[in-house]
Amino acid sequence: MYHQPVLKNRRSLLERAEKFVSDIYFTDCNLRGRLYGESHPLESLSSIMSCKRITFSEAQTQNFSPYKVGDKFGPTWWTCWFKAALKIPSSWRGKEVHLLWESDGEAMVWRDGQAVQGLTKEGEKTSYILSDCLTEEEAANSVSVYVELACNGFFGAGQGSMIAAPDPNRNFSVQKAELVVFNRNVRELLTDFEMLIDIVKELGESEQRSFQALFTVNEMVNVSNPADPSSFTKARALAHKFFSQRNGQSQHTVHAMGHCHIDSAWLWPYEESIRKCGRSWVTAIRLMEKNPQFVFTCSQAQQFDWVKSWYPGLFSEIQHYVKTGQFVPVGGTWVEMDGNLPSGESMVRQFLEGQRYFEQEFGKRCKEFWLPDTFGYSAQLPQIMRGCGISNFLTQKLSWNLVNTFPHSTFFWEGLDGSQVLTHFPPGNSYEMMGKVQDLVKTVKQNKDKGRANHSAVLFGFGDGGGGPTQLMLDRLGRVRDTDGLPKVHMSSPDELFSQLWADSDLLCTWNGELFLELHNGTYTTQAQIKRGNRQCEALLHDIEVASSLALYQDKTFQYPAVELRKLWRLLLLNQFHDVIPGSCIEMVVEDALGYYEDINRTGAALLENSLSALVSKGNATAVFNSLPWERLEVLQIQEAPGKHGLALVRAPSIGVAAIQGTKPVTPVCVTVQADDSVLMENGIVRTVVNKDGTLTSLHLITANREAMTDDCSGNQFVIFDDVPLYWDAWDVMDYHLQTRKAVVDVLQPAHVLSSHELRGSVRFTLRISDKSTVTQEIVMDAMCPYIKFNTQVNWAESHKFLKVEFPVRVRSPNATYEIQFGHLQRPTHRNTSWDWARFEVWGHKWADLSEHNFGVALLNDCKYGYSVHKNTMTLSLLRAPKAPDANADMGTHRFTYAVMPHAGSFQDAGVIQCAYNLNFPLRLTPCFPETAPRSAFSVSPAGVILETVKQAEDRKGALVVRLYEAHGGGVMATLSSTLSVKEAWHCDLLEQIDTAQPAHVTADGITLNFSPFQVRSVLLVVDA
Ligand SMILES: [Zn+2]
Question: Considering Cα of 184, then 185, then 190, then 191, what sign does the dihedral take?
Fold first, then answer.
């Protein structure tokens, strides 16, 4: 130091440096003011508007009219195409020249018919590099580029706040469109300054390194003259000296990976996500060209498929950079799906479709599951991942827990069956970091496994709405690859990170069971129509696959509809995206999603009919098709004569068909109106008393002589809550809503007998929920059926209310059981600890059960996912009424069914699981010859093993894949029997890869399969036609 020593005033030194790079203060004389040199106007700028998302070639044919910078255009969701003619002044030879473009909305630059770069102010991308170093030739020619500008922001167009419903009338404008000289040397020096200033601030006064940075940066101001670029060399040398003072060997290593989280639909429709992918990914490719060390991780096969069809040129570039290892497809799934609500088979299909796509397009599968932004993770995921060739998992969402801090950053996650995956939560708690010093410092400080794991991920790049990394982020990280006081920064890939973590995993802890997110618990209920669409379509696709598989061996001309099924599955999987099935999306997305369910239902119904008619010969009788692996005896509504419907008690064989033959019930249903106008119904198994207001005063299990309802409370009690969360409206229901419970008691039409048939008794009533909403319900008791069904219709026009139904039962147990994917788990009914009471609203699939020794009650449903069981009250969540981001969420008419089933013994032995399947997979009817003999294709014993899936093998026509799981939670040896002529049977994984070392054991009785608790097994069957 050759001048006055610095005084001991940290603040003035720090602020001096800050002002030197400020973009607000002193830009007339500071370094920042020198970032751009001369500017030059465009030759011309013209535009056209389109309400549709048209292609480049369509846009090109339109008549463009002149556009003046500052002019307004719109409205929201439209697209404005600009044509810019430009000629670079020849005096700029040798300089770096940018097209500077500042506008609202999200833009894509097109040049020579190709998408070349994204531009968004929100994503800090406002310039398109026309030339790194202008040549004579470049200066001589006029150039025209197109800019496609979407009239929506990164986060849609929320009116007033990000998650508010979109403002349909927003105006947009371009604020700047000109040619500029970009002073790269100023940018580089600015980056040095910014990083050093951040080091001063982030390391703080307790670290001597912070002061070293402070004195360095102060000296850099001393030697820099913004007006004289030759002075920058000295300043840069000082910065370089600081940055290259190295760490010791023990320092933490940060694995920096570029990332761009793109929600497949959220505050914008699916179609806009396609363009978000295009804009973000082409920008990543441009960065790869300039930065060979840059690695970009990218998930969701669906998005790759979108880009393949919309941006074929970009897709070929991506394929190239996948080969070089810079563009890294991750995740292995079709979309980043919700981690709670999709069925077990849906989760398998997410991986099956995803991994097969990655294999087909890029020649490799993903080794890690990637789900940074999903609202909780099923305990069955580790087994599903393992079955799909995946042993690593990355997420971070549990950092959003409202009550408890999750204790690990790097750990083994053990699933329901004992499968383990190595799991990493980036300790910075973000998947959209900026490559700044604070990201690095946070990552080290917040690592919860200090001393156990010395490697962490930093995912950098704008995300959620797309955007991705910038050159500046790369430059920041490049400065501090190994700088004493900061973690080492390694440009890395998920593969490298996880290899490091595996290599040093001896001390890691294990977390067993689900990763429950203590927030967003309203997403089990919001947008009930989407949930219903999902559940019904899951059942429909299941049935089509079973029926088509059987038809293959019944009718030699039958073609398994593999292509159509793949299309339908992909639509269903797409709607399982983590802002669609949870109901956290805008109304436009809801409309698209419901439209996809309609497509699945329409096409699916035709496929099912087609396969059923191949299964039985058409005639004037009716056959019943049962897609479930057990015999069923159920009351069905049938057509007795044209226009005349009747009821029949029908027996249907396990996975098979039979002509309908009505049987007599052992005990007919008996319906009696009692003196107090309550209605008593019994069927020899259960007896119930329905009050005038539809509540049950009694639910008696006759066969065990046990009463299921408590003395002082009634079952089937509708209750309504105020439901005003703190911020995330569609997502969150807060614990305090429980204090606002009100019973729905206003009777509009008292319970009256609707049917007193010997096969079916039913009672109907209507309640007023409010002056805007009503609930009408038919309580149905069928002969021979162990559960009572509640067919419900709600006309719903509420605001911030939550409707549920309660069953206070005479059962005492510290835990309730909930069905999840391929199994079930228990959660507490008490609130001992914060971990217990944070689960005041939980998710389950088709059933939940509360049992004590030898007796219990199960609550079944056909399209609901939200439950709570507190003490002895079992509650099913029915409808919510959030107003953001969809102002009309859940308004209208809803139909759903739930059922209550008291049982003796355990829920396993009582057949609760099978009853819940029966409720969700209706027997299907099809015309047949009266002589059609009952046929069963498959059956399994014992009952604890469930044959979930029967489908044609992906890569082998004429072979079937069957998937079974152990549902009771106990190891067992099972036998799968089939009437098909099975030639060979092979164990395979969930991706249907045969284990040639493991032929399945085939005996005369069937295929013998060993199961451990909750194990899922797939078997490939080669069948003689
Ligand atoms: Zn997301």
Answer: positive
- Across the range 826-833, mean pLDDT stands at 98
Confidence category of residue 2, pLDDT binned at 50, 70, 90: low
Q: What spacing in Å lies between the alpha carbon of 257 and ligand 1's midpoint?
A: 18
Angstrom distance (rounded) from CA 534 to CA 536: 6
The string of DSSP letters for 14-58 reads: HHHHHHHT-SSSSTTTSSGGGSEEEEEE-SEEEEEEESS---HHH
Average pLDDT, the chain: 97
DSSP 229: G
Q: How far is the CA of 579 from the centre of ligand 1 (A)?
A: 7
Cβ-based neighbour number of residue 402 at 10 Å: 14
Parallel, antiparallel, or unpaired: how do β-strands 253-259 and 455-460 relate? Answer: parallel
Say if CB 985 and CB 1019 are below 8 A apart.
yes
Assign 359 to helix, strand or coil: helix
- What is the 799 CA–ligand 1 centroid distance (Å)? 26
Residue 5 has pLDDT above 80, yes or no: no
Candidate list 263, 373, 475, 732, residue with the active-site label: 373
Cα 261 to ligand 1 centroid, rounded to whole Å: 6
For CA atoms 705, 708, 712, 713, the dihedral sign is negative
How far is ligand 1, taken at its centre, from the CA of residue 305, in Å?
Answer: 18
Model confidence pLDDT, tens digit, residues 790-824:
999 999 999 999 999 999 999 999 999 999 999 99
Residue pair 242/193 in contact by the 8 Å Cβ criterion:
no
Cβ(332)–Cβ(298) under 8 Å?
no
Give the gyration radius of the chain's Cα atoms.
32
Does the global pTM surpass 0.85? yes
Mean pLDDT of 290-319: 98
Q: Buried b vs exposed e over 969-979: b needs ≥16 C-beta within 10 Å? A: beebebbbbbe
Q: How far, in Å, is the centroid of ligand 1 from the Cα of 188?
A: 33
Task: Collect all residues with Cβ–Cβ distance below 8 Å to 739 and sequence separation of at least 6.
Answer: none
Whether 373 sits among the annotated catalytic residues: the reply is yes
The predicted-structure confidence for 180-211, as pLDDT tens digits, reads as follows 999 999 999 999 999 999 999 999 999 999 99
What's the rounded mean pLDDT across residues 429-457? 97
How far is it, in rounded angstroms, from Cα 92 to Cα 38?
9
Q: In sequence order, what are the residues at sequence separation of 6 or more whose Cβ sits closer than 8 angstroms to the Cβ of residue 986? A: 994, 995, 996, 998, 999, 1000, 1019, 1020, 1022
Cβ proximity of 30 and 119 under 8 Å: no
User: For residue 916, what is the enclosing H or E element?
Assistant: helix 912-920
What DSSP designation does 120 have? Answer: B
Which among 150, 79, 145, 141 has a CA at the least distance from the CA of 115?
145
Contacts 24+ apart (CB under 8 A), 746-751: 747/692, 747/693, 747/694, 748/774, 749/776, 750/677, 750/692, 750/693, 751/677, 751/678, 751/679, 751/690, 751/691, 751/692, 751/693, 751/694, 751/779
pLDDT, position 930: 86
Ligand 1 mean position, distance from CA 265 (Å): 9
How far is CA 570 from each of CA 300, 591, 596, 835, 836, rounded to the nearest angstrom?
A: 12, 17, 10, 36, 37
DSSP per residue, 275-294: HHHHHHHHHHHHHHHH-TT-
Q: What is the distance, to the nearest Å, from the Cα of residue 288 to the centroid of all Cα atoms in its chain?
A: 29
Q: Tell me the torsion sign for CA atoms 331, 335, 339, 342.
A: negative
Nearest to 75 by CA among 176, 164, 166, 175: 166
CB-based contact 145:1 (threshold 8 Å): no
| Cα(869)–Cα(757) distance, integer angstroms | 34
Q: How far apart are CA 258 and CA 291, in angstroms?
A: 12
Q: Which residues pair with 298 in a beta bridge?
A: 329
* Percentage with pLDDT > 70 across the chain: 100
